[in-house]
Amino acid sequence: MRTVGVEEELLLVDPETGEPKALSAAVLARAAQDEAAGDVFEKELYGQMLEFATHPQSDMAKLGGELVRCRKEAARHAEEIGCAVAALATSPLPVSPSISMNRRYQWMAEQYGIATREQLVCGCHVHVSVESDEEAVAVVDRVRPWLPVLAALSANSPFWQGQDSGYHSYRSRVWGRWPSAGPTELFGSPERYHRRVADMVDTGVILDEGMVYFDARLSARYPTVEIRVSDVCLHAENAQLIAALARGLVETAARAWRVGREPVDHSVSLLRLAAWQAARTGLAGELLHPVTMRRTPAEAVMQALLDHVGDALADAGDLDWAREAMRRLLRHGNGARVQRDLMDRTGSLRDVVAECVRLTQT
Q1: What is the pLDDT of residues 288-335, one digit of tens each?
Q2: Which of 50, 70, 268, 307 is deepest in the core (most CB within 10 A)?
Q3: 353: domain CATH number?
Q4: Is the Cβ–Cβ distance between 110 and 31 less than 8 Å?
């Protein structure tokens, strides 16, 4: 059974005004005093963000429980220093991000200018274990067309600097400003993958391998494939669903590779269009079908995803739960829909943030 770990980035906000607060250093210091917290929490690029990483789990129910626990711990530590955490992929309210002070982040600020100053976005990264670099690259090549579907499921960033962006996942459009971000061409072998990464670093445009922001990449630290397309999800159950589907995609891709099935050779141009469409409409309209690359109702694409990974989900014992979780997600909507519904009802972005703070821990 493949193990799965999740990294989530949370927004630190003022519990009264809903505005982001640059208090990550204080929250991290408070968490460091708590032996039970361990080394779960990490510093991020901005002082208004807090990141945590779960331990690798093979049981999805345990992973879901750990996601809820980590979110509650983050909320407790934040409350102790006068702020709150919200699983929001962008701040609904206007914000001037504060860049954390270290050499790496300062280099990024100088290298990329305004693009760095506008990157206060919160994502969800899923690590799925693999047996070798050969398997990992085969997986990266084969999951490419399905990744925009995960982005649509997780979309949770409709507002930007106090305005409706018109997108369901505006975070992904902001993230795409990094020069190394986005979908990749087929690599075919570990040698080609590592040569491409080395060539990118050697240009000097990026600092190191950690700044290779492919939608799916080989982790530099762990024996995993890291899938990086998702917004942080408003509800922990949706993050658990993304993790289960990611493991299903990795296992399905590895099985296809082992029997000699070639990856679908969609161009990067088409994959970029699929990612844009997912960001624009989320689950509310049409997506590009991963096989045909033609516009298809989102619900039909969700079913295609479940069909594609169904055997892997069933073998892991996740299929029935994933079907029900998908039904709930389609019925109640992703975070973007929840945020817009809240805005329609209250007319206040501050109230949107306040309710999302509550929903983050449910």
Answers
A1: 999 999 999 999 999 999 999 999 999 999 999 999 999 999 999 999
A2: 50
A3: 3.30.590.20
A4: no
Look up residue 183 and give its two tokens: 């979908």
Three-class SS state of 129: strand
Please name which of 345, 339, 326 lies closest in space to residue 150, comparing C-alpha atoms: 326
The boundaries of the domain holding residue 29 are 4-360
Tell me: pLDDT of 208 over 80: yes
Residues in a beta bridge with 159: 164
Exposure string for 275-311, b = 16+ CB within 10 A, e = fewer: bbbbbbbbbeebbbbbeebeebebeebbebbbebbee
Residue 162 has pLDDT above 90, yes or no: yes
b/e 138-159 (16+ beta carbons within 10 angstroms → b): bbbbbbbbbbbbbbbbbbbbbb
Domain count for the chain, please give it: 1
Residue 83, SS3?
coil
Cα angle 157-164-338, degrees, rounded to a multiple of 5: 50
Cβ pair 103, 138 in contact under 8 A:
no
Between the two ends of the chain, the Cα-to-Cα distance in Å is 28
Locate 176 and state its tokens. 């795409």
Mean pLDDT for 215-230 is: 96
Question: Residue written as tokens 């070798």?
Answer: 132
Position 101 pLDDT exceeds 90: no
Torsion-angle region of 82 (φ positive above 0: left; ψ -120 to 50: alpha; else: beta): left
Residue 252 has a pLDDT of 98
Using only C-alpha atoms, what is the Rg of the chain?
19
Burial label for 328, CB within 10 Å (0-12, 13-18, 19+), is middle
